[in-house]
């Protein structure tokens, strides 16, 4: 029922995929009352290698795809948190855990 939904405790944090929000060139995420924005970034050479390995694209198609996206530096400028995904998987995991713990704590949860 609506009443039980209204009295049910809200989670202290929720994560949303935000590429579309950022690429709309607006600050809609702030208007939506989101506490912050996590951007995951990697150097261009790493992104190219990963696209080639994952999708089997040639250099021209990779460059075309990347050029159609918002510049990484602009995404980073809009971020409240940054995860550097250019290193190994364990480094990315540790950054993710640390940021998650920080956000959870800021939102009233316990880490």
Short description:
This protein is mainly alpha-helical. 54% of the residues lie in helices and 7% in strands.
Secondary structure elements and pairings:
Elements lengths: L1 H6 L11 H5 L4 H4 L6 E4 L2 H12 L3 H9 L4 H6 L3 E4 L4 H18 L5
Parallel strand pairs: 1-2
**Total count of strands:** 2
* Structural class computed from helices and strand pairing: mainly alpha
Q: What series of H and E elements makes up the topology?
A: HHHEHHHEH
Q: Helical amount among residues, as a percent range?
A: 40-55%
Give the helix tally.
Answer: 7
Which spans have pLDDT < 50 for at least 5 consecutive residues?
none
Sheet with most strands: strand arrangement: 1-2
Query: CA-to-CA gap between the ends?
Result: 31 Å
Mass-distribution shape: globular
Q: Approximately what portion of the residues adopt beta-strand conformation?
A: 5-15%
What is the CA-based Rg, rounded?
A: 17 Å
Mean pLDDT: 81
Give me the oligomer status: single chain
Biggest sheet details? 2 strands, parallel
Structural write-up:
The protein is 54% helix and 7% strand. It has helices at 2-7, 19-23, 28-31, 44-55, 59-67, 72-77, 89-106; strands spanning 38-41, 81-84. A two-stranded parallel ribbon has the order 1-2. The longest helix has 18 residues, at 89-106. It is globular, with a radius of gyration of 17 Å.
Supply database-style keywords.
single chain; 111 residues; mainly alpha; two-stranded parallel ribbon; 7 helices; globular
């Amino acid at each position: 029922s609506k009443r039980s939904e209204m009295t049910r405790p809200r989670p202290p944090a929720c994560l949303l995929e935000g590429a579309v929000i950022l690429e709309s060139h607006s600050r809609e995420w702030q208007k939506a009352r989101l506490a912050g924005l996590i951007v995951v970034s990697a150097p261009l050479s790493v992104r190219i290698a990963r696209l080639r390995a994952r999708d089997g694209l040639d250099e021209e198609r990779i460059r075309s795809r990347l050029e159609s996206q918002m510049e990484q530096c602009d995404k980073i400028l809009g971020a409240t948190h940054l995860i550097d995904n250019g290193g190994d998987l364990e480094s990315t995991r540790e950054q993710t855990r640390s940021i998650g713990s920080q956000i959870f704590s800021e939102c009233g949860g316990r880490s």
